[in-house]
Amino acid sequence: LLTAISIERCVSVLCSSNSRPQWLSAVVCALLWALSIAVIAAVSSLCLAHEQESCQVALISMYALDFFIFAPSMVVSNVLLFFKVLCVSQGPQPKRLYIVISLTVLFFLLFALPLSIWNFLQQFGYFLVPTQVVFLLACINSSINPFIYFLVGSCQKRCSLVSLQVAFQRVFEEE
């Protein structure tokens, strides 16, 4: 989902609304979801059938998909988005939604990707970091988004403490 959102926001900034096909978002999301569902279905069926060797190959494929498709797509699209909005655009500074998406992707890469890397390396017998560390990072990732929304939504001209509802409204509304 983060990959689809990152790519969509990047494409919407890079391409004018006239030159971008309206169906592009739906196709990108459908392809990413189909790829994810196919890989997860293969992993689930092979691992539940106790096909040990095939299960390991499917798991390695799933983690490789994270590293080589999803994570790089998020990073590249966010770097392009920042470059376009901050360096090229003469208009107003980036909107809060861009900041939220970028922070969400950054924290995903810092806190959730280590679990995938750990799982990937574990398939080859490498145990570099204790299990508790990677699971703690994954737990932080799964609970950090509301804080990002609140902090970005509560900082307008000056940072102030506002209600959670007002902060969420500010994040997701267009200026």
From TrEMBL:
<feature type="transmembrane region" description="Helical">
    <location>
        <begin position="133"/>
        <end position="152"/>
    </location>
</feature>
<keyword id="KW-0807">Transducer</keyword>
<keyword id="KW-0812">Transmembrane</keyword>
<dbReference type="InterPro" id="IPR026234">
    <property type="entry name" value="MRGPCRFAMILY"/>
</dbReference>
<feature type="transmembrane region" description="Helical">
    <location>
        <begin position="60"/>
        <end position="85"/>
    </location>
</feature>
<keyword id="KW-0297">G-protein coupled receptor</keyword>
<feature type="transmembrane region" description="Helical">
    <location>
        <begin position="23"/>
        <end position="48"/>
    </location>
</feature>
<feature type="domain" description="G-protein coupled receptors family 1 profile">
    <location>
        <begin position="1"/>
        <end position="149"/>
    </location>
</feature>
<dbReference type="InterPro" id="IPR017452">
    <property type="entry name" value="GPCR_Rhodpsn_7TM"/>
</dbReference>
<dbReference type="GO" id="GO:0005886">
    <property type="term" value="C:plasma membrane"/>
</dbReference>
<keyword id="KW-0472">Membrane</keyword>
<keyword id="KW-0675">Receptor</keyword>
<keyword id="KW-1133">Transmembrane helix</keyword>
<feature type="transmembrane region" description="Helical">
    <location>
        <begin position="97"/>
        <end position="121"/>
    </location>
</feature>
<protein>
    <submittedName>
        <fullName>Proto-oncogene Mas</fullName>
    </submittedName>
</protein>
<dbReference type="GO" id="GO:0004930">
    <property type="term" value="F:G protein-coupled receptor activity"/>
</dbReference>
